[in-house]
Amino acid sequence: MVRLSAPLVATFGLFANGALGALEVNLDDPESIKSTAEQVAKDLLTFYRGDEPGWVPGILPGPPPDGDYYWWQGGAMWGALLDYRHHTGDKQFDDIITQAILWQVGPNKDFMPPNWTASMGNDDQAFWAYSAMIAAETGYTDPPPDEAQWLALAQAVFNEQTHEDRRVADGRCKWGLRWQVYPSNNGYNYINTVANACYFNIGSRLARYTSNDTYADLASKTFDLIQRLGYISDAYDVYDGAHLPDCTEINKAQFSYNAAMILQGCAFMYNHTNGAEPWKTRVDSLVDRMLQIFFPNGVAFEPSCEPGNCNADMESFKGYMHRWMGQTMQLVPETYSKIYPVLKTSAAAAVAQCTGGDNGRMCGFHWTSGAFDGKVGAGQQMNVLGALISLLTPSVAPPLTNATGGTSQGDVNAGSDQSVMPSFPPITGGDKAGAGIVTAVLMTGALSAFAWMSMD
Ligand SMILES: *[C@@H]1O[C@H](CO)[C@@H](O)[C@H](O)[C@H]1NC(C)=O
Ligand SMILES: *[C@@H]1O[C@H](CO)[C@@H](O)[C@H](O)[C@H]1NC(C)=O
Ligand SMILES: *[C@@H]1O[C@H](CO)[C@@H](O)[C@H](O)[C@H]1NC(C)=O
Ligand SMILES: *[C@@H]1O[C@H](CO)[C@@H](O)[C@H](O)[C@H]1NC(C)=O
Fold first, then answer.
1. Which of 3, 57, 179, 350 would disulfide-bridge 187, Cβ 3.0–4.6 Å?
2. Pocket test for ligand 3, best of 137, 402, 412, 413 (most atoms within 8 A of CB)
């Protein structure tokens, strides 16, 4: 059930020798990093059609079979572009970013638009909340007062995911956040790291932004849960998750974004608590282990799929890892000397393989060989964008809080408390094959890397 995305046309052959127009950068020069990042951001947006008539704002073409990308990856892309903006001061994409995010907030202002119900995972919803949180933390232009506000959007998602309807009622995995929102979705009984790590990450950031201890307590409780279930091992390996009833048969696949979103959350908690334990030990241990697992020879590598086939979801993980490790250097300055040199060798390798596509500078996913791998994509561009800007993070303004200039309006009661009922958009003419198609969509939908493991 792992979806293998159809390779886009490979044009490697055309440029194999001359590397015409290949991407270039001087990583010792912040201005060079910025101008190369601008090129990569523009090339990233060539995959986006949502600002053209007849396309839906906010999303990348999809979901399969209509295009390569699930709903969540659009949300992730706006986060990457907001980070790009914060690191470079480049505001040229503001209109497109604001329109995209606000289009997808949905009727309850909680990033649950009915169009995407059939594949709504807690992690998918959270990736949109990340983008709203980045907007709040970087002082991005607030929406008009009658629209949803950045901070309130993140609070809405967090509040809904705190709700017992989304959680395991009892037993060994009690209080675990389920992967899927709706009981009828495959993966509802998969209690995975990513859903809980997303919640942890948003909670840690709301704690720091608002200084409301409830968020810190819930974040802390979540870290303890993930660790107690064994999803974070004693060696600080971060595993994928396990099923009900008892969450004991752990799928030990390690994906970079899981470890990185936990690391970033720990960095926020560390900073919020003024460097207190246990957050310092957690940050240091995760950094050490991640450098071993995900950066063989100093270049980002996705060990659980890169030797075989990564899908379009997985093909975007390296960029998050770079950005979130970059922010760790900022919030936990002591980690700089360990992290920075590795992000730099990794970014150099990332740029070196960007010799593909019609323009001769598009990027592939594999960074270790130094050669373009023949397949372009939004994830591929997002990864290189993340690798470039993460080198600038230590010198840009740290995330704002409501006491240091953050202006985004919050709402502690945001979100719907309506209980979660199975509900699906009507089957349209396109779904002629009926239930079989719906089932296939459910099984491959959402942040679907492991949908196939989640057949309950
Ligand atoms: C939902 O789908 C309709 C029909 O394709 C589209 O017009 C609308 O923009 C979509 N809304 C969202 C939030 O995706
Ligand atoms: C928290 O982050 C700020 C901004 O980068 C940094 O100056 C400060 O030293 C950090 N706090 C701790 C305890 O490391
Ligand atoms: C920040 O938010 C917290 C919790 O909502 C509130 O108690 C505090 O007064 C706010 N601080 C400022 C400076 O607005
Ligand atoms: C802190 O957050 C909790 C959880 O959302 C909320 O119930 C409470 O009202 C908040 N407290 C303040 C002072 O804003």
1. 179
2. 402
